[in-house]
Design a protein that fits this description.
Layout: E1 3-10, H1 14-25, E2 30-33, E3 50-52, H2 63-80, E4 85-87, E5 90-94, H3 99-110, E6 116-119, H4 120-126, E7 137-141, E8 145-147, H5 149-162, E9 166-168, E10 173-178, E11 185-189, E12 193-201, H6 207-210, E13 219-228, E14 244-248, E15 254-257, E16 268-273, E17 277-278, H7 294-303, E18 311-321, E19 328-331, E20 338-342, H8 352-365
Parallel strand pairs: 1-2, 1-12, 2-9, 5-14, 12-20
Antiparallel strand pairs: 3-8, 4-8, 5-7, 6-7, 10-11, 11-12, 13-16, 13-17, 13-18, 14-15, 15-16, 19-20
């Protein structure tokens, strides 16, 4: 016997958990289905810290969403009484014409965001552990920082339950079907069958399977995260003395990192951006091999030498990336009561709070006030 709900959410990671929270907060009868446990570390919403920033080098079109995302992160912090967002300041570093610097500057200037431009001497004077080469510049943004992804997912899930959502875990979805009338959807899992008026599919790295009918050109990548024990100790890397950063070097390699954080695993986290290899959730290699840190060590040795100490922890995560590296977000082109959500592409987590609001808008009203034209589901033909 199928159970009836207003909206079913498939996938309760960063985006799905926020959508379940937003729906339940509006009094909608919502069922959330997750193939793993709550706030698990087998997808894309883990790693202890994720960068959040407003001067967005990827495209100025993201900035209005980011401004709302900050407001909604503060909302879930207040309602859950959890400290999820840490403002540390942030540096976008590289040659003046690099995408990282020029793109961030374009977004900041177009949207009137507070920022400073620093030359190499000013970068090193303000942050002595950094070693920029002559000609390197940086955009400094005071409002940048990081989020705790596992804690944020857990907070969204807890508050979704508080507002009445039914959340079920360890229930892989086998199939979904939308009625031709556009009024009902049917979801089958390993444990049962469920019906609702609307469906949100937010499956992360499982998108290629659950969006198979759309033939979207999505690629899942295995990316690696590392935590280092700095030479000379962590004090110079603590919040207040060290910001988040994204650094583009001469060959267009981007590496990024964070201040030191309390709690396990400790150390100072750094990683290469978009340096992954293709995988699937079933084939991803979660063992981190010694040589896989070599390119990152080259970047650290040249630019943050004190950070190039022993690796004390490492982890793998998955990016689900579109060809243009923009999100996929909107109504299913053939089923107006099905919402398609793949707002990842390696830079999506910071948007989870506002994506949850957008998904709830689309599920309830079929539209949203937020600008999401860049993410049209049908843009790949």
């Amino acid at each position: 016997m199928a159970s009836a709900y207003d909206v079913i959410v498939i996938g309760l990671g960063g985006m799905g958990s926020a959508a379940a929270y937003q729906l339940a907060r509006r009094g909608v009868r919502v069922l959330g289905l997750e193939r793993h446990t709550a706030a698990h570390v087998l997808g894309s919403s883990h790693g202890k810290s994720r960068i959040i920033r407003q001067a967005y080098f990827e495209d100025p079109a993201y900035v209005p969403l980011l401004l709302r995302a900050y407001e909604l992160w503060e909302q879930i912090e207040h309602e859950s009484r959890e400290n999820l967002l840490h403002i540390t300041g942030g540096l976008m570093i590289g040659p003046p014409t690099s995408r990282t610097v020029a793109g961030a500057r374009r977004s900041a200037e177009q949207h009137g965001l507070a920022h400073e431009m620093l030359d190499a001497a000013e970068i090193q004077q303000r942050f002595p552990v950094l070693r920029p080469t002559p000609g390197t510049i940086a955009l400094y943004e005071q409002k940048a920082g990081f989020l705790h992804p596992e804690a944020s997912v857990a907070a969204h899930l807890r508050m979704a339950s508080h507002f009445g959502a039914e959340l079920q875990f360890n229930q892989p979805v086998l199939s979904w079907e939308a009625a031709p009338s556009g009024t009902r959807v049917h979801v089958t899992t390993e444990q049962g069958s469920y019906e609702a008026g609307r469906l949100i599919i937010s499956p992360g790295a499982w998108a290629p399977q659950l969006f198979a009918d759309l033939h979207l050109p999505l690629v899942v990548e295995r990316n690696l995260l590392f935590w280092f024990e700095p030479h000379g100790g962590r004090e110079p890397f603590t919040p207040g003395r060290f910001p988040i950063y994204i650094w583009e070097v001469d060959d267009h390699t981007q590496f990024y990192g964070f201040p030191a954080q309390d709690g396990p695993p400790g150390g100072v986290k750094a990683a290469l951006f978009r340096a992954g290899v293709h995988c699937t959730p079933e084939t991803i290699d979660r063992t981190i091999h010694p040589h896989e840190v070599d390119r990152l060590r080259e970047c650290l040795a040249a630019h943050i030498p004190d950070l190039n100490g022993p690796v004390i922890e490492a982890a793998a995560c998955m990016y689900t990336t579109s060809p243009d590296e923009h999100f996929i977000l909107g109504l299913h082109p053939h089923h107006p009561n099905v919402v398609v959500s793949s707002p990842c592409s390696g830079h999506g987590y910071k948007f989870a709070s506002v994506i949850g609001e957008i998904l709830a808008d689309l599920a309830i009203d079929g539209t949203t006030r937020h600008p999401i034209g860049l993410f049209d589901v049908g843009r790949f033909g």
